[in-house]
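Troubleshooting log. The previous run stalled partway through. Resubmitting the same two chains, unchanged.
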Amino acid sequence: MNTKLKVSEISKIYPGCTANDKVSLEFGSGKIYALLGENGAGKSTLVKILSGVVKPDEGEVFLNDESIKLNSPLDAKKNNIGMVFQHFNLFETLSVFENLSIDSEKKDEDLRVLVNDILKKYNFKIDLDIPVLNLSAGQKQKVEIIRCLIRNPKVLIMDEPTSVLTEQETDDLFTSLKQFSKDGILIIYITHKLKEVLSLCDEVAVMRKGKVVSVSNTIDEKIESLANKMVGENLNTIKKKINNLKSSEEILKISNLNFKSDDPYETNLNNLNLSLKKGECLGIAGISGNGQNELFQILSGEIITEGTSIMFRNKEISKLNPRERREYLMAFSPEDRISQAAVPELKIYENVALNNFKSSNFFEKGLVNEKKIKEHSKKILSNFSVNTDNVELKSQFLSGGNLQKLIIGRELITSPELLVCFNPTWGLDVGAINYIHETLIQINEQGKSSILISTDNDELLKLSDRICVIYKGELSKIMNADTVTAEKLGILMGGGSID
Amino acid sequence: MIKIERRNDVSRSIYFLTPVLAIFLTLFGGGIIFYILGFNPIEALKFFFITPISDLYGLSELLVKATPLCLIAIGLSFCFKSNNWNIGAEGQLIFGGIVGGGVALLFYNHDGFYVLPIIILSGAIGGMLFAMIPAILKTYFNTNEILVSLMLVYVAKLLLDYLVVGPWSNPEGFNFPETRQFSESARIPVLFDGLRIHAGIFITLITVFLSWLILYKTYLGFQIKVSGLSLKTAKYAGYKGKTMIIIVFMISGACAGLAGVGEITGPIGQLHRNISPDYGFTAIIVAFLGRLNPVGIIFASLIVALTYLGAETAQIFLQVPKYTGQVFQGMILFFLLGSDYLLFFKIKFLGLKKNEL
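Second attempt completed without errors. Output:
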């Protein structure tokens, strides 16, 4: 049984971003295909189109030379396309077997025979009658895979399947995938991990900014060559900033940062150590989901970890909450500007009052000093060129760029010694990006420090004095920015190592 | 195909007008029910909503019922605004009543101006402590406050049952399940001879004013508002989430406790099994009908109080069970939630596209 899957000239445009730009790819059974790319490269959109979740604006999908319409996940199932998403869709309180029988038309007895055959054939060890919540992440994934196998899939798509798995579970998964492939199932494997591509897949298609930039046999590729293709080679031309303020004064020192989460979708952090000098920008690169979220929250004080030492300007602040850290002149700009850094339903001046510390006198003797907050807000709006002077406006009516200016302004108007920002320019237009970048360079020039956690390598190379990479909750060594190339970053981000 | 989309901006005036719309829809729905039951809908609604308040006595009764409803709903608004779902105000009311009543029995045969304030205060503290149980369990053991606060209602009810039947029952009461009548100095004074309206209404009005002050003019109020809109933001701003949960439950419990002690020292004058006709549950409707806004809650409490009175009149004149009152309360909530849905979401009817056929 030979299966051929072809996508032809697929385009999908979202407001403000082209997710897929005339993507054409061909796959044939018996091989494992990797779809490689950074976040936002368009992999997920393409996969969603193949599984019927998203409809393309243009283009067609062919299965065995027949054009097929994928208007819903049901259509994908009918065409024997199976899909295992990164986040599991299982009912936690139901048993494994109940989860499998829910969307199966087969009789329970027949289904049980079939499932037992699959378990035996692929050497899966799962008790069918225990509730799903008692399973490990790897076992849950197996349940999802079995759910696909029941339907005799011709195509099996795996979306970043190893992000929640341990090393051992990853090895098991690869063994199974290779076996499926031998049995004639066409496997498409979506990832941003270079090593996995090399060890598992036969062919690799690299996507960047919505386009397919290369298709090749993995035998012909190395980690370096794939990294280059993934992040793009034109990055060396970006002008780095020159920081003349060489200060030796250490402002922040973090030692033994460990964080273990109960939530399998969070990343554990493993023995992070870093230090930061006055007037310096430390860039932290990495593909999202490698612990950036957790690191930001630990820096801001939203997560308090045991046994970690965070010295800021020679004071131990590891046990302080975000408000208390602000008193020590730290400031934070989270990634989620829309629903965390600001509340859309609140007015501008109320959002400004979120960054409250004693000397601001926003709240005197527990009472709201509206006049003071509004004056302060007006100052932010004009100093940071936010495109309105109406502090009564609800912040949901600000564009992304103006909202980010308001947030950065709110954080910076207090002249903090350290600003921690996380993807400050995602989704913004070029004008706003430049403004934010200039602002970030400016604070370094004024002798203030910053930590820039970002998934945008251009941004990191442009703004950082030193750069390190976070991968699976661990930090690489910290390098001087002028010795860092996009290639090196790409290797480290994909889990490779450099000399 | 039908598509449901969130509306981006909801006008503030319409936001406060939809409760009025819900009330009119309730009247309409009530009319239909009466019609089906074989009554003239206009006449029946008149018995229900006009007759009860067409004399001074009726107006006084309206305020007697609205006083506890408004007080409890104000307290609940603190919880609901900050995303804490305290469903057990009825239990907190009863427990406040038990503590206040216990103190009142303790001061039996005592005279003095200090007796009543002590009783009222102890009632408030009783409600407050009872509300702290779900709050502490939620903050330290991650339990669900909806379940715990609701279950505690039955604990309070059974405790009251036990006390009025057993240890606290009136020694001269021929084994009726009730305590002694409280002494005069333990009673909230009535405002006018011959009417039941009592000075408890001032406690309610003062509480409404204080709540408005706290919610709109203080740092605590601001923190409550932010936490209600986005817990993520509250965490990012560094608000002490756990302390705040406990504070809002304390405020809410104290209000319910006050309502309980107000009932037993006001119109009732003793403890017995049924010190509250589910005021604690009905106040949830009041709080939402009043948009969790202190002024809105005053109006809402008057309207919902009227359904209590209307049910009694209807029972007398139309021989329908007094539970019709609850039917009306249910309809108010139903229509309010329904119109809210249409307020926050718009429904688009799209024609079927060809390739979907």
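Takeaways: The interface with chain B takes residues 69, 71, 300-302, 321-326, 332, 334, 336, 339-343, 345-346, 350, 353-356, 363, 366-368, 394, 396-397 of chain A (CB under 8 Å). The longest strand of chain A covers residues 17-28.
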